[in-house]
Design goal:
The chain contains 18 helices and 13 strands. With about 475 residues, it is an alpha/beta fold. The strands form three sheets. A six-stranded mixed β-sheet has the order 1-11-10-9-12-13, sandwiched between helices. Strands 4-3-2-5-8 form a five-stranded mixed β-sheet. Strand 6 and strand 7 form a beta hairpin. The protein is globular, with a radius of gyration of 23 Å. The structure holds beta-D-glucopyranose. Beta-D-glucopyranose (BGC) binds next to helix 6 and strand 10.
């Protein structure tokens, strides 16, 4: 590899490095940010939203009944019906519908919710056409964006993330809009609970976790997918911002949706590289969710693209290609967000001779012919980007474990995180790297306890049903 390219790669590796001191500092900063977010009612860019969810306990596994769940939060909209059997198990029927890109931005919330309601009609016709006319089905809505919740079934959208941008919806109650569209279709459905996907994941993993078998307590629900976020149960005295609101007297805790995607928006500890800044600049929520933009599936491919374009502009890669194409590059390289993180998951582990598999993949998926040297550089970059993402992902987990571990001082059970999302589930080595970085931070030092990251399949749907059931 030529020495200029080698030193450009070294520059990125250094700029993205995550060492023990960084992890310790960031974990402490996360702990401080949690308290600030729990004290401040108004959500600003300066701190994590730490949103009270009005879910005041977590399931025991004994809950039962038939519930509907709708899940909107990314590229697919899902509808499910869940029959909770009361013994840690459930039956699930579900349908998945891709959300048309033209409904995600440059449109109205009515267009989006009318699409969503029409899919519920299809689902009910396909799976529940035998229901008694007098029955109204109870539904939980999983809505995976920052929402200021004012009750278990009420919440106003604070801002869109993950590429959605329908300005008329911001500040409005999403349950209201959704119910109006269901009623317009005369569907026998009442939306009685609103939950973030992380809250759903926490609830569903808690329901499925038979702790007598796993010897672990479920303490966090986390998503590492298109976006990233986590929820956990906080003791009520530690949430000053809900002090004055009405709560039943015996309430001891409440699930908090941290919105950790917005950890350190002011970049006090996180890497402030020019490549991260370039990615942020392309998003509709600029200056927000900067932690998410370093970690989650929507942004890893974009980071690679931005770095490759920088290398191209510095004359380090794709020079012959550019000339051979009449001074152009393939549009999947020049246009934002067309290089999917899924491609990185193949590049990451390619061990074929001269990285031939990557060569084919990039030709097919990106229309990008490459030299062996370019492929070596691209694989190195992929690994640098994904390793940083995985190591950063350990920070919120370690901070929350540090915060809650004393509550479990009297038992010998391990801690588990219920997880969902494509990165944690499918990206090669991601989960192990999160665990490795957690070990470096080592919040369980001095105990015999371990941390487990357990996939909560279909977590957000089942969790919304559980929310509806606990109302
Ligand atoms: C949203 C969160 C959500 C996370 C994972 C983020 O962009 O702000 O509400 O939980 O993505 O889906």
């Amino acid at each position: 590899m030529n020495s200029e390219l080698t030193s450009a790669l070294e520059e990125i590796a250094n700029a993205f490095a995550v060492d023990k001191a960084f992890l310790a500092k960031a974990t402490n900063h996360f702990l401080v940010s949690m308290d600030v977010g729990l004290a401040n009612e108004v959500s600003t860019r300066g701190y994590m939203p730490m949103i009270p969810t009005y879910v005041t306990s977590i399931p025991t596994g004994k809950e039962h009944g038939l519930y509907l769940a709708a899940d909107l939060g990314g590229t697919n909209f899902r509808v499910c019906s869940i029959n909770l059997r009361g013994d840690n198990t459930f039956d699930l029927k579900q349908s998945k519908f891709p959300v048309p890109v033209e409904l995600m931005k440059g449109n109205t919330s009515d267009a989006l919710f009318s699409f969503v309601a029409s899919k519920i009609e299809i689902f009910l016709n396909d799976h529940h056409d035998d229901l008694d006319e007098s029955v109204t089905l109870k539904m939980g809505l999983t809505f995976s964006f920052p929402v200021e919740q004012t009750a278990i079934d009420r919440g106003k959208l604070i801002r869109w993330t993950k590429g959605f941008d329908l300005p008329d919806c911001v500040g409005r109650d999403v349950v209201d809009i959704f119910q109006r569209h269901l009623d317009a279709l005369k569907l026998p459905v009442a939306v009685i609970a609103l939950a973030n996907d992380t809250v759903g994941t926490l609830l569903s993993r808690s329901y499925s976790n038979d702790s007598s078998k796993t010897n672990s307590n479920t303490v966090i629900g986390a998503i590492f997918g298109t976006g990233t976020n986590g929820a956990y149960l906080e003791t009520i005295e530690n949430i000053p911002k809900i002090e004055h609101k009405f709560l039943p007297k015996n309430t001891t805790g409440m699930v908090i949706n941290t919105e950790w995607g917005s950890f350190d928006n002011t970049l006090e500890v996180l890497h402030a590289t020019k490549w991260d800044a370039a990615v942020d600049k392309e998003t509709s929520n600029k200056g927000y969710h900067l932690f998410e933009k370093r970690i989650s599936g929507m942004f890893l491919g974009e980071l690679l693209r931005v770095i490759l374009m920088d290398f191209f502009n510095r004359g380090l890669v794709f020079q012959d290609l550019y000339k051979s194409r009449d001074n152009t590059l393939p549009h999947r390289l020049t246009e934002p967000f067309l290089l999917s993180s899924k491609i990185l998951s193949y590049l990451e582990i390619d061990d074929s001779t001269e990285l031939k598999m990557s060569e084919l993949l990039m030709e097919n998926e990106l229309r990008l012919p490459t030299t062996y040297e370019e492929r070596q550089a691209i694989q190195r970059l992929t690994r640098i980007i994904s390793s940083r993402a995985a190591s950063l992902s350990a920070i919120p987990i370690a901070a929350i474990v540090t915060r809650v571990k004393d509550q479990y001082a009297d038992d010998d059970k391990d801690f588990e995180v219920g997880c969902d999302g494509s990165l944690i589930e499918f990206y090669p080595g991601f989960k192990q790297k999160v665990l490795d970085a957690f070990e470096v931070i080592n919040p369980l030092q001095g105990t015999n306890k371990k941390l487990h990251l357990r996939i909560a399949k279909d977590g957000s749907g089942v969790g919304a049903a559980l929310c509806a059931c606990m109302v």
